[in-house]
């Protein structure tokens, strides 16, 4: 009994983790599960044993995490004291092995590992290892850098070949792997001269009369804000207003938090101000690029996304809060391991009700089971709604991770051809020219020429708290859906992700994407912002006349 108590105490000291379970999918290499290989692998040569591979290693169960934390810890004295409690030999001390330890969405670690260290890990933790995959380079790439073979049919055919090849490579393990695939933020940005918006408590950035007080819940819009104008009405023509509530509802997302896993955020931008002044509604979570809590945005993508979700004038949920979790550096580069670490951090530290945005994904034909498992666990185990970009390759989104995760709300990007010169009654919406499509898409949201806060010098010449710019892509569609999710959670804070998804999809406008523009097997649903109105849900029973 005494030894059992000591063991439990040591677990509490070392774990600090929540429950969760990895979901099904493809792994790079398996350990003791499924069909064994025809013959055992030969022992590695000395040079191979010393070569490091940047890996993400996933365990079968959370039970092994306290032992792993002890093994990876730097202190020899601490290891010597506690190792007998865990049944570990002195050879099992492997300080510096773990870059990140995952204990909330998946169970495992990432780090640069030699074959000898991997074998030692299996010896020290028998039965622990579930699967492993190579860590992948991730970066924020502009739209014209995305993989896009032409014409359209060639794109789709090549995507299918690439996806099958990607699956085979992952199932065969690390040997003979092709160059590492990349993870992109799905946007197309144009550098501007840094449009300066008026103070948000005056005319705002809309170009129209002063915005109504929050109790009135109506914003008068200029043409540049066509996206908000389109969200609150079933059909064109656009009426120059954004209505985000009624006398009996709130409709601002107050009390909800959106976690933007991205390039950081410029939290002192005027779009993140509170009604009536006070502290910013934007906060820093954790910076996995520099390993500190300063999530300032030097790329600008995260700031643009965050302001579209909660901005005081350019945003959907005008009283919600946002927390930045930074995984992309100033050049837009990062790693899958940092992305999973960010999701693990959100699982452990989020304030409910919460929404997560992932305006990024792996390029077509590449797969990451660990990323898919982490997203699925965040939704299914931790009850957090996750909104994911469909991707910008003009192919089936089911070939892109994590857009292919069923539990996520995967969003494609829509457009309106006459958004700036007078839309006509009954005019159909279009599809962003490079938006991915297919059965993994849950709905469309505006994603072309989206005007929002500028947070990076690559996007606007002058970056300050009143700078704005345009961007396009499925990245920009994501925060519209996240904002509507926040509005719903304000009124129904105990809702599950399934409840949120059901409400958003149930209220979405049906049949608004033109038949000629809609790719096959893609849901013809367009985001409708007034999701908390009973009338909205009733009106969504079929296309309006």
UniProtKB/TrEMBL annotation:
GO terms for biological process: proteolysis. GO terms for cellular component: cytosol. Keywords: Hydrolase, Protease, Serine protease, Signal. Residues 253-510 form the Peptidase S8/S53 domain. The keyword Transmembrane does not apply. The active site is at 262 (charge relay system), 301 (charge relay system), 475 (charge relay system). Gene3D superfamilies: Peptidase S8/S53 domain. InterPro entries: PCSK9_ProteinaseK-like, Peptidase_S8/S53_dom, Peptidase_S8/S53_dom_sf, Peptidase_S8_Asp-AS, Peptidase_S8_Ser-AS, Peptidase_S8_subtilisin-like, Peptidase_S8_subtilisin-rel. Residues 151-182 are annotated as: Disordered. It comes from the Eukaryota. GO terms for molecular function: serine-type endopeptidase activity; tripeptidyl-peptidase activity. Transmembrane segments: none annotated. Residues 1-20 form the signal peptide. Coiled coil: none annotated. PANTHER family: PEPTIDASE S8 (PTHR43806), TRIPEPTIDYL-PEPTIDASE 2 (PTHR43806:SF14). Belongs to the peptidase S8 family. This is Peptidase S8/S53 domain-containing protein.
């Amino acid at each position: 009994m005494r030894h059992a108590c000591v063991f439990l105490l040591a677990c509490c000291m070392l774990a600090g983790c929540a429950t969760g379970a990895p979901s099904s999918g493809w792994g790079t290499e398996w350990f003791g599960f499924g069909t064994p290989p025809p013959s055992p692998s030969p022992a590695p040569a000395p040079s191979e044993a010393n070569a490091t591979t940047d890996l993400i290693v996933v365990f079968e169960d959370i039970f092994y995490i306290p032992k792993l934390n002890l093994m990876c810890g730097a202190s020899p004295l601490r290891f010597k004291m506690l190792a007998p409690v865990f049944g570990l030999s002195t050879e099992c001390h492997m300080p510096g092995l773990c870059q990140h330890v995952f204990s909330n969405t998946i169970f495992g670690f990432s780090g640069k590992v030699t074959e000898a260290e991997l074998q030692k890990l299996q010896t020290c933790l028998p039965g622990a290892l579930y699967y492993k995959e190579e860590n992948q380079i991730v970066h924020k790439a502009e739209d014209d850098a995305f993989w896009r073979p032409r014409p359209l049919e060639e794109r789709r055919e090549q995507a299918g070949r690439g996806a099958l090849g990607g699956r085979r490579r992952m199932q065969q393990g690390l040997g003979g792997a092709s160059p590492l695939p990349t993870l992109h933020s799905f946007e197309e940005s144009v550098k501007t001269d840094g449009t300066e918006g008026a103070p948000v408590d005056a005319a705002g950035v809309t170009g129209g009369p002063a915005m109504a007080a929050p109790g009135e819940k109506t914003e008068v819009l200029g043409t540049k804000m066509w996206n908000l104008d389109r969200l609150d009405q079933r059909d064109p023509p656009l009426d120059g207003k954004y209505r985000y509530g009624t006398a009996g509802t709130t409709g601002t997302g107050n009390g909800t938090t959106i976690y933007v896993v991205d390039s950081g955020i410029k939290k002192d931008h005027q779009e993140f101000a509170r009604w009536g002044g006070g502290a910013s509604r934007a906060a820093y979570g954790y910076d996995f690029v520099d390993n500190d809590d300063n999530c300032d945005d030097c790329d600008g993508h995260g700031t643009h996304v965050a302001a579209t979700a909660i901005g005081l004038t350019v945003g959907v949920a005008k009283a919600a809060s946002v927390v930045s979790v930074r995984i992309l550096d100033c050049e837009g580069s990062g790693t899958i391991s940092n992305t999973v670490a960010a999701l693990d951090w959100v699982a452990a530290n989020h304030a409910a009700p919460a929404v997560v945005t992932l305006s990024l994904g792996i390029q077509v034909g590449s797969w990451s089971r660990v990323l898919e498992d982490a997203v699925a666990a965040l939704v299914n185990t931790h009850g957090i709604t996750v909104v994911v970009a469909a991707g910008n390759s003009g192919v089936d989104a089911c070939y892109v991770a994590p857009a292919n995760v069923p539990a996520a709300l995967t969003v494609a990007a829509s457009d309106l051809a006459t958004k700036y010169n007078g839309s006509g009654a009954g005019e159909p919406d279009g599809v962003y020219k490079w938006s991915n499509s297919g059965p993994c898409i849950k709905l469309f949201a505006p994603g072309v020429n989206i005007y929002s806060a500028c947070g990076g010098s690559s996007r606007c010449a002058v970056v300050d708290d009143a700078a704005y710019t345009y961007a396009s892509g499925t990245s920009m569609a994501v925060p519209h859906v996240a904002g509507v999710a926040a509005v719903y959670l304000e009124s129904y804070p105990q809702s599950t992700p399934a409840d949120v998804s059901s409400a958003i999809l149930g209220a979405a406008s049906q049949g608004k994407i033109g038949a000629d523009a809609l790719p096959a097997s893609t849901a013809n649903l367009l985001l409708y912002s007034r999701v908390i109105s009973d009338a909205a849900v009733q009106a969504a029973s079929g296309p309006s006349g």
